[in-house]
Amino acid sequence: MPPPADIVKVAIEWPGANAQLIEMDQKRPLSSIIREVCDVVSRRQARAARQLLERIQSHGIDARLEALKELAKLSADPTFAAEFINMEGIGTLARLVESEIFLIDDNVTYCVSVETFGEMLAFTLTAFLELMDHGIVSWDLISLSFIKQIAGYVNQPMVDVSILQRSLAILESMVLNSHSLYHRVAQEITVGQLIGHLQVSNQEIQTYAIALINALFLKAPEDRRQEMASTLAQKHLRSIILNHVIRGNRPIKAEMAHQLYVLQVLTFNLLEERMMTKMDPNDQVQRDIIFELRRIAFDGENDPTGTEKRKAMYTKDYKMLGFTNHVNPAMDFTQTPPGMLALDNMLYLAKVHQDTYIRIVLENSSREDKHECPFGRCAIELTRMLCEILQVGELPNEGCNDYHPMFFTHDRAWEEFFCVCIQLLNKTWKEMRATAEDFNKVMQVVREQITRALAMKPSSLDQLKNKLRGLNYSEILRLRQSERMSQDDFQSPPIIELRERIQPEILELIKQQRLNRLCEGSCFRKLGNRRRQEKFWFCRLSLNHKVLHYGDLDESPQGEVPFELLSDKIPVSDIKSVVTGKDCPHMKEKSALKQNKEVLELAFSVLYDPDETLNFVAPNKYEYCIWTDGLCALLGREMGSDLTRSDLDTLISMEMKLRLLDLENITIPEAPPPVPKEPSSYNFTYNYS
């Protein structure tokens, strides 16, 4: 007798097991079928967890090795992890590591090779990391003996690379996820030992070592961070990173770039205390610094006798130094930011680059044409601007790789950067023939010069100087004019009407481009991964635009990922909405690092039935706009990103110009002209006659 028409057989797949056929009654609610399937999967995962736990504790070395290998693979699955943890699996793994009893069981010692022992330990540490990463068990439960054992692997001079890598990752997670464990790890690991791991040729080990240094730096109490920075300076961390990482023979990978960026941010954040400290006008020590600036600038000229004459001379000198308050310049440093940091920068310039300081002050103090550049006011405002540009005081952005190699080329990189920029400001002031009324205009130009130069990623301070020389005031004006012309939007009524007519066509073109990009897919960092480890997931839209396919990857893909490798899917018809920023569920959760504005700007989530979410953090602003636009287009909603507006303006402008050229009967070739051949000889002469 044939089965009822409503009964169908469906194959169910899950990690680590063969597919199973189950009968499904199509009359039943989908939610009840899903619950039933989940129960089946949960029971199978529980059975698999129990069997693996038994095999891990078995007598045979080969059986243990295979069990640990399988466990390392399955631990990434949240359902399996929950079952294994409920059976005290993490405690079992921790005891294995603490006592190193991979080789001993029931007082019987098994003779195995060092390589086998290393493999077993590496798989154990991998499984431990994966299980802890699910957040089911608190890191605070980890024993001191386990910490000592893991720290011992890091401190050993010759240890297997895979064991060292996982040990560094475990210690980093301990520091980031537990305040009490930070103190324990800090007692077991010295900065000197970690710096030694930066001098190896393996970039992954270097990355994990810097990540652990960053974690210790980030979680250190505020009163200890400066002390830790001094220790890192004494151990020559900067020069080691410069020579063995930045200038090494291997290209910098994304994860290493992120760790260098984090270290750069944490280093600059040491300036925050001075930046937010107001000057006390009654503090004689602080006032003496201003006296020192005056003495260096005017070569210790003999002070006149008499209080009134001395006060009048000081007032005159402070005016020539460019302070706003000529009588009591200490009042200029009471605004935060930049607070006392501005005075620190000025003193550094005066003492380390004395000739430059004296030249800037004297050449402006001797001018009588109202074009003098007020050094004091400029230095204070420039310090505030540099703090904004480099985001001093901000927490690192989890998705940012924006480090600057030049800041690793000098022990006093911040101060030297200021010295380069104050000379730029003085030069730009003269080029603009500015007066006091033009102060804000000059600062806007200088900000543009600095940000454009930083975007070119100069590898040294000398390269920065060269970039800034090429960005003089005339060049900034030329760039501005060029950008205005490229964005020029003709405002005559016929052009406006033409624009309105072709806009729907261009919007449809942009929509198709966004959907095509979703079909190609993108790689994202795996969410919920606290440790610094390269783990990814991939998402792409089906070619018929009906299903979103996604799945985990072991490494960053090169090109498209086939649909067959993406095990999970969401029907587009089930998608209810797309939310962004702080409305995303994963942005409301606690994180080891506070989510700052930049992370929020890259976050978006797909909400779908039944009450499920797929959470994203885009690798950059471009991918964020592509995906949010594409998902909105998929749901029939308006694409409202900045990228859409920019693309719309560009494409409409190009289309209108092409149509206007067509009106003038100017033929536009179908193919570009051929590239001229390289001359066989560069020897030539010019005939002046």
Automatic annotation (TrEMBL):
<dbReference type="GO" id="GO:0006915">
    <property type="term" value="P:apoptotic process"/>
</dbReference>
<dbReference type="InterPro" id="IPR050868">
    <property type="entry name" value="ELMO_domain-containing"/>
</dbReference>
<protein>
    <recommendedName>
        <fullName>ELMO domain-containing protein</fullName>
    </recommendedName>
</protein>
<dbReference type="InterPro" id="IPR011989">
    <property type="entry name" value="ARM-like"/>
</dbReference>
<dbReference type="Pfam" id="PF11841">
    <property type="entry name" value="ELMO_ARM"/>
</dbReference>
<dbReference type="Pfam" id="PF04727">
    <property type="entry name" value="ELMO_CED12"/>
</dbReference>
<dbReference type="GO" id="GO:0048870">
    <property type="term" value="P:cell motility"/>
</dbReference>
<keyword id="KW-0053">Apoptosis</keyword>
<dbReference type="GO" id="GO:0006909">
    <property type="term" value="P:phagocytosis"/>
</dbReference>
<dbReference type="InterPro" id="IPR024574">
    <property type="entry name" value="ELMO_ARM"/>
</dbReference>
<dbReference type="InterPro" id="IPR011993">
    <property type="entry name" value="PH-like_dom_sf"/>
</dbReference>
<feature type="domain" description="ELMO">
    <location>
        <begin position="285"/>
        <end position="454"/>
    </location>
</feature>
<comment type="function">
    <text>Involved in cytoskeletal rearrangements required for phagocytosis of apoptotic cells and cell motility. Acts in association with DOCK1 and CRK. Was initially proposed to be required in complex with DOCK1 to activate Rac Rho small GTPases. May enhance the guanine nucleotide exchange factor (GEF) activity of DOCK1.</text>
</comment>
<dbReference type="InterPro" id="IPR001849">
    <property type="entry name" value="PH_domain"/>
</dbReference>
<dbReference type="Pfam" id="PF16457">
    <property type="entry name" value="PH_12"/>
</dbReference>
<dbReference type="GO" id="GO:0017124">
    <property type="term" value="F:SH3 domain binding"/>
</dbReference>
<dbReference type="GO" id="GO:0007015">
    <property type="term" value="P:actin filament organization"/>
</dbReference>
<keyword id="KW-0581">Phagocytosis</keyword>
<keyword id="KW-0729">SH3-binding</keyword>
<dbReference type="InterPro" id="IPR016024">
    <property type="entry name" value="ARM-type_fold"/>
</dbReference>
<dbReference type="InterPro" id="IPR006816">
    <property type="entry name" value="ELMO_dom"/>
</dbReference>
